[in-house]
Design goal:
There is one protein chain. Helices cover about 75% and strands about 0% of the residues. It has a domain of about 55 residues. The protein is mainly α and about 140 residues long. The longest helix has about 55 residues.
Length: about 140
């Protein structure tokens, strides 16, 4: 125990009997045993609390890592949904579309000026009168 051999323990016990005497020795031994028991409990309690603290620090680090990931993801979402940039992009896209439409109308107008005028379609007469059936005269 504590790196002491049997002979060293016997020497300490003999000295304790000489100083304390035979009537106080049993109560002193009980007090020493209680001291070692409480010291052992305290050491185990400190060990458990250190292990819990180490576990808590690991959990805290994991939580911080998740927090960083969430912040990065939210920043990406903000960048993707940045209304100013989307608005500018849509505005530029709208301007480009309008420019393309104007260019197409301009080219169509030029091509219509060059083409020969089309002949008007032939008019058809529309009436609501019944048509007479032609009867074939068959001689029998």
């Amino acid at each position: 125990m504590f790196g002491m051999g049997f002979t060293e323990i016997m020497v300490i016990a003999a000295i304790a009997i000489l100083f304390l005497g035979p009537d106080k020795l049993p109560s002193a031994m009980v007090d020493i045993a209680k001291f070692f028991r409480t010291a052992k409990r305290t050491i185990n309690s400190v060990k458990d609390s250190l292990e819990q603290e180490m576990n808590v620090s690991e959990i805290k680090q994991e939580a911080l890592a998740y927090k960083r990931e969430l912040l990065e993801a939210s920043n990406e979402v903000k960048e993707a949904t940045n209304l100013h940039e989307v608005n500018a992009t849509l505005s530029n896209l709208g301007d480009d579309i309008l420019k393309d439409i104007d260019d197409n109308h301009h080219h169509e107008a030029i091509s219509h000026e060059v083409e020969q005028p089309a002949q008007p379609p032939k008019s058809q007469e529309i009436t609501f009168a019944k048509k007479k059936k032609k009867e074939d005269n068959i001689d029998v």
